[in-house]
Amino acid sequence: MQESVTGTLEQIDAWLATNCPAVQSTLPAPASSAQLDHLQALTGIGLLPQVEQLYRWHNGSAGLPQPFWLAPDHGFLTLDDALDEWRTYNQVVADTFSDPSEAAWLWSREWLPIGSAWAGSILVVDHSPGPGQGSVFTVQHGTGARRNLGWPSIAVLLHELATTLTTGTPMRERTLTVGPDKLTWN
After folding, report:
1. For FRET with 143, which of 11, 20, 21, 76 sits at 20 to 30 Å CA-CA?
2. Residue 182 and residue 186: Cα distance in Å, rounded?
3. What does the alpha-carbon distance between residue 136 and residue 21 come to, in Å, rounded to a whole number?
4. Distance CA 63, CA 76 (A)
5. pLDDT score at 105
6. All domains in the chain, ordered by first residue
7. Half-sphere exposure of 97 toward its Cβ, with a 13 Å CA cutoff?
8. What is the 3-state secondary structure (H, E, C) of the chain?
9. Distance CA 92, CA 131 (A)
10. How far apart are CA 26 and CA 47, in angstroms?
11. What is the C-alpha separation between 76 and 55, in angstroms, rounded?
12. pLDDT truncated to tens, each residue of the chain (186 aa)?
């Protein structure tokens, strides 16, 4: 059973309201049950509870130039954008590999994008059964998964982000600059 991330999301919301209301105001409404069900039906992925909680907080962020960053250089994708990225990666595998198992280093249909660097890298949550289920890591076009640079769960990622926001502590050796209308990773 995965721990709830609701408390951490409330902490992040409170911090945004006080310190960067312009970014908070760009965050869409929570995803509806119908939107979550639609994504699950199209991908065949049964969403993990922490993913549902994340999207019931907000359905992604506005994207560039003012995204809400889930991790350094990875803005929070809407469900529609997550589905687009998921479809794109699946199409790349279909177009490139005759046997999808040959692409295991690059992509799995059970990885759901939740963040994007908008420059060839996405942040995914592994929904595959097994010990890696729930882990969060980046996937880059051409170089594949980078699990060693990820987090064991959304809860750990969000806790690290909340700590960075509230204390200024670097996240993965990157600092977050708070401007009047945006957050920027340095």
Report:
1. 76
2. 13
3. 27
4. 7
5. 75
6. 6-185 (3.40.1580.10)
7. 16
8. CCCCCHHHHHHHHHHHHHHCHHHHHHCCCCCCHHHHHHHHHHHCCCCCHHHHHHHHHCCCCCCCCCCCEEECCEEECCHHHHHHHHHHHHHHHHHHCCCHHHHCCCCCCCEEEEEECCCCEEEEEECCCCCCCCCEEEEECCCEEEEEEEECCHHHHHHHHHHHHHHCCCECCECEEECCCCEEEC
9. 26
10. 25
11. 10
12. 568 999 999 999 999 999 999 899 989 999 999 999 999 999 999 999 999 999 999 999 977 677 899 999 899 999 999 999 999 989 988 898 888 788 877 889 999 999 998 887 899 999 999 999 999 999 887 776 677 779 999 999 999 999 999 999 999 999 999 887 889 899
Q: How far is CA 173 from CA 14, 52, 76, 92, 106, in A?
A: 24, 29, 20, 32, 25
Nearest residue to 77 (alpha-carbon basis) of 60, 62, 52 = 60
CA dist 52 and 142 (Å) reads: 29
Q: What is the Cα 46 distance to its own chain's centre? A: 16
Distance CA 75, CA 58 (A): 13
d(CA 74, CA 61): 11
140 and 120 Cβ atoms separated by less than 8 Å: yes
